[in-house]
């Protein structure tokens, strides 16, 4: 598995991964409102790192480098649970200064377990009912 910075030619595949992953795992949202264009809106001005193998993108993470903040981390559903997310997290932690932060939707129990398994700690739960998330830190 190779980890590298994304470039614009990767965006069509990244858009598809973002859409498919969200539709599969974000059961609390209406999948009919999710579009390919969401990727561009939700990663604007961010540094994107991707994982690939045999010229196929397995997943990505997008970072706000100046804030040491991980905004998105998505793995293609076919490669979930195979170490892709952990590898992306490892590289992200090397790219930024500690402490790093991220927000994880409270309803996303699978992601919460993943982050905790990788050394992240819950700090505070914020948001309004139906839109709650945990602020998490990695030191």
Automatic annotation (TrEMBL):
<dbReference type="Pfam" id="PF00583">
    <property type="entry name" value="Acetyltransf_1"/>
</dbReference>
<keyword id="KW-0012">Acyltransferase</keyword>
<protein>
    <submittedName>
        <fullName>GNAT family N-acetyltransferase</fullName>
    </submittedName>
</protein>
<feature type="domain" description="N-acetyltransferase">
    <location>
        <begin position="1"/>
        <end position="139"/>
    </location>
</feature>
<keyword id="KW-0808">Transferase</keyword>
<dbReference type="InterPro" id="IPR016181">
    <property type="entry name" value="Acyl_CoA_acyltransferase"/>
</dbReference>
<dbReference type="InterPro" id="IPR000182">
    <property type="entry name" value="GNAT_dom"/>
</dbReference>
<dbReference type="InterPro" id="IPR050832">
    <property type="entry name" value="Bact_Acetyltransf"/>
</dbReference>
<dbReference type="GO" id="GO:0016747">
    <property type="term" value="F:acyltransferase activity, transferring groups other than amino-acyl groups"/>
</dbReference>
């Amino acid at each position: 598995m190779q980890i590298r910075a994304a470039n614009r030619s990767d965006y069509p595949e990244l858009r598809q991964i973002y859409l498919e992953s969200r539709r599969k795992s974000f059961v609390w949202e209406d999948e009919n409102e999710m579009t390919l264009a969401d990727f561009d809106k939700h990663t604007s001005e961010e540094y994107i790192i991707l994982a690939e193998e045999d010229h196929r993108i397995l997943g990505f993470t997008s970072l706000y480098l100046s804030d040491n903040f991980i905004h998105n981390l998505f793995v293609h559903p076919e490669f979930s649970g195979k170490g892709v997310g952990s590898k992306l997290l490892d590289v992200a932690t090397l790219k930024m200064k500690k402490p790093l932060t991220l927000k994880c939707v409270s309803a996303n129990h699978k992601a919460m377990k993943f982050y905790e398994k990788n050394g992240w700690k819950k700090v505070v739960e914020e948001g309004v009912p139906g839109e709650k998330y945990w602020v998490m830190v990695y030191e």
